[in-house]
Prior knowledge:
The chain is α/β, with parallel strands linked by helices. It has helices at residues 35-39, 46-68, 87-104, 113-119, 164-174, 181-189, 214-226, 232-261, 276-289, 305-317; strands at 4-9, 14-21, 25-33, 77-83, 108-112, 132-137, 142-149, 152-158, 265-269, 292-294. The strands form two sheets. Strands 3-2-1-4-5 form a five-stranded mixed beta sheet, sandwiched between helices. A five-stranded mixed beta sheet has the order 8-7-6-9-10, sandwiched between helices. The protein is globular and about 65 Å long.
Amino acid sequence: xxxxxxxxxxxxxxxxxxxxxxxxxxxxxxxxxxxxxxxxxxxxxxxxxxxxxxxxxxxxxxxxxxxxxxxxxxxxxxxxxxxxxxxxxxxxxxxxxxxxxxxxxxxxxxxxxxxxxxxxxxxxxxxxxxxxxxxxxxxxxxxxxxxxxxxxxxxxxxxxxxxxxxxxxxxxxxxxxxxxxxxxxxxxxxxxxxxxxxxxxxxxxxxxxxxxxxxxxxxxxxxxxxxxxxxxxxxxxxxxxxxxxxxxxxxxxxxxxxxxxxxxxxxxxxxxxxxxxxxxxxxxxxxxxxxxxxxxxxxxxxxxxxxxxxxxxxxxxxxxxxxxxxxxxxxxxxxxxxxx
Length: 340
Ligand code: KG4
Ligand code: ZN
């Protein structure tokens, strides 16, 4: 059966639309990032995010259909991000998706944003096979999940405070770097000198797979405030020290999770999976043990419509679709999902 699914992502500050076909793969995608708008305020302003999504959805859909040479009547179903996320922002995509589905008389399906991230490596040429450990590292989540099948998820560990991306963003902000801090901090770290600052590796000395990043952020603040009129080189050095401490923790806990489960495959997804130092460190650690790591293509690490179209297509193909008119979830544990 050929299933062509329109996917819509609007959970935070990116409006993403994509078409995914269960036989041909990704047919097309469009993305609008609100980064420039929120950068003025140093972080996401939820109400502005919702308003901007509303303005972008229709033009992006038109552009998507035009570029992919697809007519609306060819679309078999509409998938949208149902949660977790900013509820106003979620509402815009959900209402749009439900309206289209109703007008086109096709099913709609609400998708879990983190399942979208988790499956995004399947958009790459080399796709992971089950079972695997997923390291989900975004602006809102840091989780290690044992994945045996789509929907069969066991939470192995998570951050007890800030998410990894959030720690990058907050540390960057307190050093005066622009929003979103993660990519800016990573760029500055390239000029950093190792061993200038030594930052803590929180929770590494304790057993278990949970993370904590707020102490690391506080250590960055303490070192930064102790600098008298910090130079560009001081900032680069501190960025590198932060990046090394955060990534070291992510890598070591991922190895620990693989040992604990006995799995040999790691999937890394979410915005921080774009970090090249993380990919590099993981590659070394995995290669040494004969294990393999999979990542989404670079453009699908941060929020996008393609991952929602893909996750939606796999679930729709298995016969799932929305039973309720509209139910959004600002908080939604990944482990509540139904197994396929
Ligand atoms: O997955 P995502 O787009 O949104 C959420 O679902 O939260 O992730 C965004 C996060 C931000 O915190 C951003 O700073 C971080 O991913 N990020 C990075 C990099 N690119 C994006 N963090 C570190 N290094 C990067 N290269
Ligand atoms: Zn995300």
